């Protein structure tokens, strides 16, 4: 039985679970407190939300007001979001990595009334800009000892800890509980649930208006496509809830199905937390999967000899077993026996490091290299891919659990249309829906457009920008290039990322970069070549592999020179550039490269909060190094 209908809103999801799935005393949230994992029930979660809602009403918060967050994933995020959603507030989440100027812009553009602050470091950022935000009336840290940070600052906004908000709210709750229940019943699916500001690789951030209907419909159809998620699952959350992917794929899914959410302590402790929590489902990004892949390959082959032979044999058996099953056939008795040995000797040991209970992982945010997806499939760890943007709530397509085509992002979700539009003629090459799925269908590539329930309401206070991306027929133009391949959506790249060389050849960087990322030596590749005679790249080495190979100390990465000029290291990277270049067309091959000592960072303004490189910023910042590569620096081929 579906717990969602056309009238369902975000604040009703948890109450549906309590009514139909779990008793209110069952565990909903899990967090690490010192050395112990603490479980928090549905009852406690909603009690905290009611208290915070009561406080909001007491200080004059009204339906439609924007209430901001700048906080890492935590139970406090959930309390605060549930509180504001049920009184018609609008969740305005801010990436903790943004600069003070960007935070100030978002607070002012949204007119946020309150902001929940997750750490002393983040509070220091807010204090510097708070008095420039006229609408801000409350700053709410999740910790108590904030006075030492604020004592020398005269703030226009009041500041009170979240614990104090909950205490004050509980005192007033008898006076406000009927009003809270009444407002919750009056929240409409068409009302705005969240403003999510697009990071963007260029330009001013835009607030994407997503409605309750956007979120609820997106969750509903994704669960139809992945029906194996149930009320017994435990999700481990580590991707930022300030991003729409984690909010939908983990938070809203769990609120809908009654799954538990455990919050990872940090990215650094993620592997440890996986072993402790033993999740059954996780949302992740391709880079994490690439790192697990690289580490597993290295661990399995580094010792050489018999151990390496067994590891490589196991992967070969895993591939044969997977391919036969994916073809709808049954593996032979001998292959099944070999697979059981491979499972015991190799696969189970890798799976145990994830906690040993994973049913699948959902990869989003960028394209997953085909070889990485196949590697996990060979191990028996299912990786489902999804595709979408903030403006599409986010999911437009997601892999079906029972049918996978590696290198694609899955089948169109129910209730929407996805069109492939020729970039030059603007005519649609193909329009597909969930119902028109044909596993044998393939079409030419073009811009991916979408129409239907997942499309945003528009950009906050930006009607002209909204009209630029949503045309008169309701098609949202994503700016991504792709096609349908075997019935599934396949992403090529972003239109604005496309390089056109001096001879008029179109080059999409992402698939080219992913080819070179097969190298165990390379962490990242940034392709250059627009209006140039040949392609060059800024390459970031895999730090761990580089250190081990050349016995380098950490101080090597603290040297002032941004680029590595050591001839041995250049030759070492060049070996793999040449090796993988043969998989590409000649005009796509890297002819010259520079090795950047450390990765591009958000802090240096080179990456967006969703870890996409800002092409214009990077090309401008490293213009001299790029010019050198076109004067014959390191020849890779």
Record keyword descriptors for this entry.
637 residues, alpha/beta, Rossmann fold, GMP Synthetase, Chain A, domain 3, eight-stranded mixed β-sheet, five-stranded mixed β-sheet, 38% helix, globular, disordered C terminus
Explain what you see.
The chain has 637 residues and is α/β, with parallel strands linked by helices. Among the domains are: 12-187 and 241-251, ANL, N-terminal domain (Rossmann fold); 498-629, GMP Synthetase, Chain A, domain 3. It is built from 20 helices and 28 strands. The chain has an eight-stranded mixed β-sheet, with helices on both faces. It has a five-stranded mixed β-sheet with strand order 12-13-14-15-16. A hairpin with a 6-residue loop joins β25 (522-528) and β26. α1 runs parallel beside α9 (244-257), α2 (42-58) packs across α3 and α12 (305-326) crosses α13. It is globular and about 70 Å long. Mean pLDDT is 94; it is low at 633-637.
**Taking Cα atoms only, what radius of gyration do you get, to the nearest Å?**
25 Å
- Which structural class fits the helix and strand makeup? alpha/beta
Note the beta-strand portion. 15-25%
CATH superfamily of the domain at 12-187 and 241-251: ANL, N-terminal domain
**Multimeric state:** single chain
Shape: globular
CATH fold annotation of the domain at 12-187 and 241-251: Rossmann fold
Mean pLDDT, rounded to whole units? 94
- Main β sheet profile: 8 strands, mixed
- What is the number of E strands? 28
Number of helices, where a helix is a run of at least 4 consecutive DSSP H or I residues = 20
| Residues in helices, as a percent range | 25-40%
Largest beta sheet: strand ordering: 7-6-5-3-4-8-9-20
Unreliable spans are: 633-637
What is the annotated CATH architecture of the domain at 12-187 and 241-251?
Answer: 3-Layer(aba) Sandwich
Keywords: ATP-binding, Nucleotide-binding
GO molecular function: ATP binding; long-chain fatty acid-CoA ligase activity
Protein name: AMP-binding protein
């Amino acid at each position: 039985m579906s717990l969602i209908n056309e009238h369902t809103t975000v604040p009703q999801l948890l109450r549906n679970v309590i009514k139909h799935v779990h008793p209110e005393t069952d565990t909903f949230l899990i967090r690490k407190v010192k050395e112990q994992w603490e479980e928090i029930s549905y009852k406690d979660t909603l009690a905290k939300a009611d208290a915070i809602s009561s406080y909001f009403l007491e200080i004059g918060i009204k339906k439609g007001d924007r209430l901001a967050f700048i906080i890492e994933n935590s139970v406090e995020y959930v309390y605060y979001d549930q509180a504001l959603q049920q009184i018609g507030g609008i969740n305005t989440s801010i990436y903790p990595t943004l600069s003070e100027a960007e935070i100030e812009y978002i607070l002012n553009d949204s007119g946020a009334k309150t902001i929940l602050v997750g750490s002393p470091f983040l509070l220091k950022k807010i204090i510097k800009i708070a008095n420039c935000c006229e609408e801000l009336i409350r700053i709410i840290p999740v910790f108590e000892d904030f006075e030492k940070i604020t004592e020398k600052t005269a703030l226009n906004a009041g500041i009170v800890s979240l614990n104090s908000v909950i205490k004050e709210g509980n005192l007033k709750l008898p006076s406000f509980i009927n009003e809270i229940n009444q407002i919750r019943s009056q929240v409409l699916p068409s009302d705005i649930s969240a403003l999510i500001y697009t990071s963007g690789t260029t330009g001013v951030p835009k607030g994407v208006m997503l409605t309750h209907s956007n979120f609820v419909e997106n969750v509903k159809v994704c669960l139809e496509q992945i029906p194996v998620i149930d009320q017994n699952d435990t999700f481990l959350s580590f991707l930022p809830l300030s991003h729409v992917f984690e909010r939908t794929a983990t938070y809203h899914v769990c609120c809908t199905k009654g799954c538990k959410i455990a919050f990872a302590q940090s990215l650094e402790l993620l592997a440890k937390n996986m072993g402790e929590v033993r999740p059954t489902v996780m949302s992740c990004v391709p880079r994490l999967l690439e790192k697990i892949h690289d580490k597993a390959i290295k661990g399995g082959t580094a010792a050489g000899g018999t151990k390496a032979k067994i590891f490589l044999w196991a992967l070969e058996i895993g591939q044969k077993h997977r391919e036969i099953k994916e073809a709808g056939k049954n593996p032979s008795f001998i292959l099944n026996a070999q697979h059981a040995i491979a499972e015991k000797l190799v696969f189970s040991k890798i799976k145990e490091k994830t906690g040993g209970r994973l049913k699948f992982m959902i990869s989003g945010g960028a394209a997953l290299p085909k070889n990485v997806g196949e590697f996990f499939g060979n191990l028996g760890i299912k990786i489902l891919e999804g595709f979408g943007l903030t403006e599409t709530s986010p999911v437009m397509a997601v892999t079906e659990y029972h049918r996978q085509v590696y290198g694609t992002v899955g089948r169109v979700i129910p209730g929407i249309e996805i069109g492939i539009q020729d970039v030059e003629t603007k005519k649609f090459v193909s329009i597909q829906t969930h119902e028109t799925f044909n596993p044998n269908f393939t079409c030419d590539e073009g811009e991916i457009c979408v129409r239907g329930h997942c499309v945003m309401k528009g950009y906050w206070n930006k009607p002209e920008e909204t009209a630029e991306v949503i045309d008169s027929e309701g098609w949202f133009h994503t700016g991504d290039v792709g096609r349908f391949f075997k019935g599934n959506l396949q992403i090529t790249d972003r239109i604005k990322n496309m390089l056109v060389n001096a001879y008029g050849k179109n080059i999409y960087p992402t698939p080219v970069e992913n080819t070179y990322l097969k190298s165990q030596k390379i962490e990242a590749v940034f392709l250059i070549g627009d209006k140039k005679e040949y392609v060059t790249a800024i390459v970031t080495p895999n730090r761990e592999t580089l250190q081990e190979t050349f016995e380098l100390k950490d101080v090597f990465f603290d040297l002032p020179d941004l680029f590595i000029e050591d001839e041995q290291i250049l030759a070492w990277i060049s070996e793999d550039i040449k090796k993988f270049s043969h998989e590409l067309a000649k005009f796509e091959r890297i002819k010259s490269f520079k090795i950047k000592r450390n990765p591009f960072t958000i802090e240096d303004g080179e990456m967006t909060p969703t870890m996409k490189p800002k092409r214009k910023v990077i090309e401008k910042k490293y213009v001299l190094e790029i010019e050198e590569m076109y004067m014959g620096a390191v020849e890779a081929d």
